[in-house]
Specification:
Blueprint: H1 3-8, H2 12-24, E1 67-70, H3 87-90, E2 101-103, E3 109-111, E4 114-121, E5 124-129, H4 143-152, H5 163-166, E6 169-176, E7 179-184, H6 205-211, E8 228-234, E9 238-243, E10 259-262, H7 267-276, E11 281-283, H8 290-293, E12 297-302, E13 306-312, H9 322-331, H10 334-340, E14 347-348, H11 362-370, H12 380-389, E15 396-402, H13 406-421, E16 425-431, H14 433-441, E17 451-452, E18 457-458, H15 464-472, H16 486-496, H17 501-515, E19 522-526, E20 529-534, E21 537-538, H18 544-548, E22 557-558
Parallel strand pairs: 1-10, 1-11, 15-16, 15-17
Antiparallel strand pairs: 2-3, 4-5, 5-7, 6-7, 8-9, 9-10, 11-20, 12-20, 13-17, 13-18, 13-19, 14-19, 21-22
């Protein structure tokens, strides 16, 4: 499906947007990275101009009877943490279910159901579980529930989405009245951080066993210890939560009497709902509608572990040629895309790792990131030479995008246009949501798709090591182009087992140096998370990963 076919299938407003992007793509001439004389990009390039990052919004001063919130990713498929892996599920889930840890507003681990934790050896981490916690039905949280929940992800028959992350875990053992010890098969200073995700989320054993495969569905229900409980779920319409009267966390007692989630994914409909007051708030509000929100409320910007990348899908063919990938990287006008598609609310990405993941050894990681030679503007002459060196292939190559993702459509079309200027033939293919998601899990689904790009390329914890774990090491199921570097694998394993932040960062940077050049993930843009709340609501944290793995709605209240 070529450029013309893509444009016909999109709304007029998006077609105009794509035309603007195409107009700026490739017009940067011999532009570079706007680096200084020392070859570094200035620190200010990490954040869009005029944007202030505020991880926490003003605290509420009153309670509210009801708040209507939108889940912009659509309706959850399940609220069972075993398989609830996407933002659609996790925008709702942490408000109902607690995990051992939380991802705080600064993207660092915080205590959850585990009041404390300690790495007692290179292969063991001990968690002290809170006493007196009760499920929303009033029954006490037991160590049997904790161990059952954690061990579900170790059972190969259970089908946990987190099975890959859990492969290094040897097991969990109760080592005290309210204590559980995580033991890994080899030294691992990283995997325990994943216990802020579904992998560490605790459910009631008897409720899961009673509901069976229906657990986490509208008919099977959910039973957890979170700030809210599931009151009702009307498929295709809404999810309603009400406060858990037994909630243990006195610092995060809900101030909202009823929280109603809508599943509005259409940008125009969502903006209309927000401006009219029918919807009180939403994360990731559509960029093209921000100017229309006016005095209805305020948009806040937060840290983000999401990023825009062009991910290779094939291990052979012209797209797998490093020179072709490098040519594309030099041809893409990242500044033009950031300005046009994102209205200036994104910045060119210098390496395929989110800068907000630099939560330790921050100065060193930032210096490395800012020294990367990724061009902000097109360098068409250099790109053309690389295409010639690659033999000037004439085969059609394809970028796959998900239907309904207007930003990715505009980005892909811009890349298609600039590729033509350097002698490459690229088509854009629109995939259904199911087809797009299958790209990750099925080699057959990737047949005929050379790259994909989308707006949901994120890591779960703020650690650059996870970028390598997800995309770069040779045995990762998400390493879709078959990249294989024994040296990188060795650096990764060394860093993974190193609890010293300084030496660990040294090895992570060495591994990133090996991996971040083409033909691997081509960096495009990074952007802050976007939160809108109308004038009657305040309190929610802003960060993307925070609202996936933190009881954010418990902080909501009246302004």
């Amino acid at each position: 499906m070529g450029r013309k076919a893509v444009s016909r299938s999109l709304p007029v407003a998006l077609a105009v947007l794509i035309a603007l992007v195409v107009a700026v793509s490739g017009c940067g001439g011999g532009g570079g990275t706007s680096q200084d004389a020392a070859g570094k990009t200035p620190e200010k390039a990490l954040t869009p101009a005029g944007v202030k990052i505020t991880p926490v919004t003003p605290a509420p001063t009153s309670s509210l009877k009801k708040v209507v919130w939108d889940d912009p990713y659509g309706e959850p498929t399940s609220l069972d943490p075993l398989t609830a892996f996407s933002p659609a599920e996790n925008t709702v889930l942490p408000n109902i279910c607690d995990a051992l840890l939380r991802t705080g507003p600064e993207l660092k681990p915080q205590p959850g159901l585990a009041e404390s934790w300690k790495q007692t050896s290179p292969t063991t981490v001990v968690f002290k579980i809170r006493k007196g916690v009760r499920f929303s039905d009033g029954s006490p949280l037991t160590m049997e529930d904790v161990l059952f929940s954690l061990n579900r992800h170790l059972d190969p028959k259970a089908g946990s989405f987190y099975a890959y992350w859990a492969e290094t875990i040897a097991g969990y053992e109760q080592t005290g009245p309210m204590e559980v010890t995580l033991t890994t098969k080899e030294p691992d200073a990283y995997v325990w951080k994943m216990l802020s995700t579904g992998m560490g989320t605790i459910v009631k054993k008897s409720a899961v066993e009673k509901a069976g495969k229906l657990y986490g569905t509208p008919s099977g229900g959910v039973m957890c210890t979170g700030a809210f409980e599931l009151s009702s779920w009307t498929p295709g319409q809404q999810i309603v939560l009400t406060p858990n009267k037994y909630y243990w966390d006195t610092a995060h007692k809900p101030r909202v009497g009823e929280l109603e989630f809508k599943f509005v994914t259409d940008p125009t409909t969502l903006i209309n709902g927000l401006t009219s007051g029918e919807i009180d708030g939403s994360y990731e509000v559509p960029i093209q509608g921000i100017s229309q929100l006016g005095s209805a409320g305020k948009v806040f910007y937060g840290p983000n572990l999401n990023m825009g990348i062009l991910q290779p899908m094939q291990s052979s063919g012209p797209a797998a040629n490093p020179k072709i990938a490098e040519a594309l990287s030099f041809a893409i006008d990242r500044s033009g895309i950031a300005e046009t598609v994102f209205g200036g609310l994104a910045v060119p990405q210098l390496a395929a790792v989110p800068p907000d993941s630099f939560t330790y050894e921050q100065k060193r990681f930032r210096e490395w990131y800012l020294s990367q030679p990724t061009p902000a503007h097109s360098d068409l002459e250099k790109a053309k030479k690389l295409v010639e060196e690659a033999g000037s292939p004439t085969e059609v190559m394809t970028i796959g995008i998900q239907s309904g993702d207007s930003q990715s459509a505009a980005v892909a079309t811009a890349i298609q246009s600039t590729a033509k200027e350097i002698g490459l033939n690229i088509e854009v293919k629109i995939l259904s949501p199911a087809q797009y998601q299958s790209l990750v899990f099925s080699k057959a689904a990737r047949q005929g798709i050379d790259w994909s790009t989308g707006s949901a390329n994120y890591i779960n914890v703020a650690d650059p090591l996870e970028v390598l774990f997800v995309w770069a090491i040779s045995d990762s199921p998400f390493n879709l182009n078959g990249y294989d570097s024994p040296k990188l694998d060795a650096l990764f394993e060394k860093a993974r087992g190193d609890s010293n932040p300084s030496s660990r960062a040294t090895d992570v940077i060495k591994a990133l140096e090996l991996w971040t050049s083409p033909p691997n993930n081509i960096p495009l843009y990074v952007y802050p998370s976007r939160l809108f709340m109308n004038s009657r609501v305040t309190g929610a944290p802003t960060g993307f990963t925070t609202y996936l793995y933190y009881p954010w709605a418990a902080d909501l209240g009246g302004s």
